[in-house]
Amino acid sequence: RTPMRNKHLEKVFGNILGTPLKIPPSPQLQKLGFGTGIEVCRVTRTPCKDVVKSPWAIKRLNRFAMMGEIERSEVYSERLEKEASLLRQLKHPNIVGFRAYKKDKEGRNVLALEVCDTSLADILEKRLDEAMGPLEVFKIQRFSIDIASALDYLHREMKILHGDMKGGNVLVKGDFEICKLCDFGVSLKLNENGYLEDREKYVGTDLWAAPEVIDEDIDQIGSGSDIFSYGLVIYETLVLMPPHLFGLADDPEMSLSELDTRVGTRPPLPETLELPEEYNVYVGIFYACTSDVPEDRPTAQGIYKMLT
Q1: 83 to each of 195, 245, 276, how far by Cα in Å?
Q2: Please, which residues bridge with residue 34 across strands?
Q3: Partners of 261 in beta bridges
Q4: Which residues pair with 100 in a beta bridge?
């Protein structure tokens, strides 16, 4: 970077470029979430000259990853660095904001992000536990519009496949004032036609994966694969469970066997699910997005235009 750019970033981020990011001891951090090898915590920043600083979400390797196999730790570190590099470039109101990428005092790479209140997955899990029924339709609408807008920006302007669309990677502020897409550690580049630019392996999460991903049909993996997963997140808002898990048998062996046949397909809506007419448009989007044929799925731009 140029000295002028460094100076500007110091003003924005509080001179974090040349010094380790100051993070309180782990017991003082509020844990927001976790993933394989990763933890996300909320850190409150010390005011500077009576200027209140907004809190940050800190994403870093957890101690198990740090103490585990070196090879796996390197994979997680590479994903974190890749995510930081990509988020620096992304500027969209429905994509979580990049704040900084530094080392903490323990030498761990740390990605600092905009803080949101919770994730869509956590909201849905709470509704399931409290038997509250499907997410309110106005909240499904907010999610559907905001994340379609984010995906349209990624697919058409930035030529990026998110690669891990699921409820856990949708962040929510307030009472669905705005939804934001997060977690870009396994994102992939798209070519001009909307398919993978390089024959890189799609990582993602199987429960939300499109059929072409499960079949490892590299030539068919593209923006439509994100759309399939987007449709399954709509399914989550209706059923309050991750796709393919509803009604699995109690026998663990049978469950795993049955699950293998379900992933990469459109899960049926439970027969007991009764939805008012106002939900019909979102049920329709769910069905359209989860077509077996990638070319038959709507684009993110098409969904956004339809809903706005």
Answers
A1: 20, 29, 40
A2: 39
A3: none
A4: 112
Give the integer Cα–Cα distance in Å for 93 and 195: 25
The single-letter code of the amino acid at 76 is Y
| pTM across the whole model | 0.84
In angstroms, the Cα distances linking 81 to 69, 106, 257 are: 18, 17, 36
Q: Which amino acid is at 13?
A: F
Element holding 302 (H helix, E strand): helix 300-307
The CA-based angle 210-144-82, given to 5 degrees, is: 60
Q: How far is CA 183 from the centre of its chain?
A: 5
Cα–Cα distance for residue pair 238/171, rounded to 1 Å: 18
Catalytic (active-site) positions = 164
Query: Which domains are delineated in the chain?
Result: 21-114 (3.30.200.20), 118-307 (1.10.510.10)
Amino acid at 302: G
- DSSP reduced 3-state for 76: helix
Q: What are phi and psi of 234, to 5 degrees?
A: -60, -40
Block residue for tokens 């090898």: 37
The per-residue pLDDT string of the chain (308 residues; one tens digit each, 9 = 90 and over) reads: 344 333 333 333 333 333 444 544 444 455 555 555 667 777 765 666 666 566 778 888 766 555 665 456 778 888 899 999 999 999 999 999 999 998 877 777 889 999 898 999 999 999 999 999 999 999 999 999 999 999 999 999 999 999 999 999 999 999 999 999 999 999 999 999 999 999 888 989 999 999 999 999 999 999 999 999 999 999 999 999 999 999 886 666 767 788 889 999 999 999 999 999 999 999 999 999 999 999 999 999 999 999 99
* Biggest CA-to-CA distance, the chain: 63
